[in-house]
UniProtKB/TrEMBL annotation:
<protein>
    <submittedName>
        <fullName>Uncharacterized protein</fullName>
    </submittedName>
</protein>
């Protein structure tokens, strides 16, 4: 992400910096072409309205999808504060290389940037959320792999996933046998992504109502599992720590 920041700043310097004509956008933004590095600060300002943020992000998305590839990096640079926050949350307690999480977050962001509907609304949060999901998938896979590959004769108490990241919760539910991988994928696609249920049904080659019932059954099992009391741990030290 430091490399992305450096490249972003290079694009915003010189005689022709990457900039947005805010005079055409309105919403009390500066009535001139504003370099993206300056525009990022404007968007972070509490005085800036949500309507202004949404209008700017719409311009960034359209430019990234239709103009020079530099605009993709420009959009990444504007979103970096949110992306860094997401990366920091996912890196807490992560036993792998945190740069892998950064890479997945950036890849998830750029992939979603190229396909999102500019009129979808809440573009900034949607893009950051897609990036966070990509990083969470990597962390969930690493955590699940570690839980599966520790030898039986070693004492191993897997860390509980961060309840703030739905992908990790779904991965734990699959590991515990509460959900199948297909059920977890259906919930993630239709609840966390922008995939409509009818699109999921077409992808699965099944009827809308059969897929709807399958999701309802899976979600009922998930809710029951999340609300159930967990059996106490055998280790007293772990019990004290949990308490």
């Amino acid at each position: 992400m430091d490399a992305a920041e450096s490249a972003f700043r290079l694009l915003c310097t010189g005689p022709e910096p990457l900039a947005v004509d805010c005079a055409r956008i309105g919403h009390k933004l500066p009535r001139r072409r504003v370099p993206l590095v300056e525009l990022r600060d404007v968007l972070l300002d509490r005085a800036t309205t949500e309507a202004a943020r949404e209008a700017v992000w719409r311009q960034l998305v359209i430019a990234a999808q239709t103009s020079d590839p530099a605009w993709v990096l420009g959009a990444v640079g504007v979103a970096l504060p949110g992306l860094r926050k997401a990366a920091g949350e996912l890196a807490t307690g992560y036993t792998g290389d945190v740069e892998d999480i950064d890479a997945e977050i950036l890849a998830g962001f750029t992939t979603r940037l190229k396909e999102i509907d500019p009129d979808a609304g809440s573009l900034g949060p949607r893009l950051v959320w897609a990036a966070q999901r990509a990083g969470a998938k990597l962390r969930a896979a690493e955590w699940d792999y570690a839980a599966r590959t520790v030898p039986r004769w070693e004492s191993f108490e897997p860390r509980q996933p961060d309840q703030g990241h739905p992908e990790l919760v779904l991965a734990e539910a699959v590991r515990e046998g509460v959900l199948t991988e297909a059920e977890a994928s259906l919930i993630a696609d239709t609840r966390l992504d922008d995939i409509h249920l009818y699109e999921a049904a077409e992808k699965l080659g099944d009827s809308y109502f059969r897929v709807l019932r399958a999701r309802e059954k899976a979600e009922a099992a998930l809710i029951s599992w999340l609300g159930a009391e967990r059996p106490p741990k055998k280790s007293k030290s772990v019990c004290k720590k949990s308490a």
